[in-house]
Amino acid sequence: MRKLLGKDMRVTNQRKIILEELQGVKTHPTADEIYSLVRKRLPRISLGTVYRNLEILSNLGLVRKLENAAGQKRFDGDMSPHHHIRCCKCGKVGDIFNAPALNGVDQGLDTDFQVTGFLLEFAGICPQCQRPTRNTKYS
Ligand SMILES: [Zn+2]
Ligand SMILES: [Zn+2]
């Protein structure tokens, strides 16, 4: 009995740490990136455990899972309503908190479905990738 409780506590604690680490960054990390963050605090955690807990956290509505056709799954600990923009060059994902043109975009749609939301991702080039690459010839 005591042993079971101990194991349960450990699982909950792992999940809490994963959530804290994810909420502490604004970078929308992949599961692998979260794994390396969490490992600093839980050196013995496995990648599989991190994956599993991320799925649970997203099912519980505590984190957002960002999926797109192009690449890896990323995670977001910020549950406030916002949109995302992905850099076409490096894959970095940024937040967009204000997109006035999208207000009401899910209204008046021609569908039998009950609309519960929509997925939208902007594409662009991030500030780092906009910087001209230094050309040794001119420096
Ligand atoms: Zn970039
Ligand atoms: Zn975000």
Task: Provide a compact summary of the structure.
By secondary structure, the chain is an alpha+beta fold. It contains 4 helices and 5 strands.
Question: In terms of topology, how is this protein built?
Answer:
Layout: H1 2-23, H2 31-39, H3 47-59, E1 64-66, E2 74-76, E3 83-87, E4 93-96, E5 121-124, H4 127-130
Parallel strand pairs: 3-5
Antiparallel strand pairs: 1-2, 3-4
One zinc ion binds near residues 28, 76, 84 and 95.
Structural class by sheet pairing and helices: alpha+beta
- Total number of beta strands: 5
Helix-strand sequence: HHHEEEEEH
Question: Per DSSP, what share of the residues sits in E-state strands of 2 or more residues?
Answer: 5-15%
Radius of gyration: 19 Å
The major β-sheet equals: 3 strands, mixed
How would you portray this structure in words?
- The chain is of the alpha+beta class and 139 residues long.
- Helix content is 35%, strand content 14%.
- The protein has 4 helices and 5 strands; from the N terminus they run H-H-H-E-E-E-E-E-H.
- The protein has helices at 2-23, 31-39, 47-59, 127-130, and strands at 64-66, 74-76, 83-87, 93-96, 121-124.
- The strands form 2 sheets. The chain has a 3-stranded mixed β-sheet, with no helix packed on it. Strands 1-2 form a two-stranded antiparallel ribbon.
- A hairpin with a 7-residue loop joins strand 1 and strand 2 (74-76).
- Helix 1 packs across helix 2 (31-39), helix 1 packs across helix 3 (47-59) and helix 2 (31-39) crosses helix 3 (47-59).
- It is flat, with a radius of gyration of 19 Å.
- The mean pLDDT is 87.
- Bound molecules: zinc ion (ZN) (2 copies).
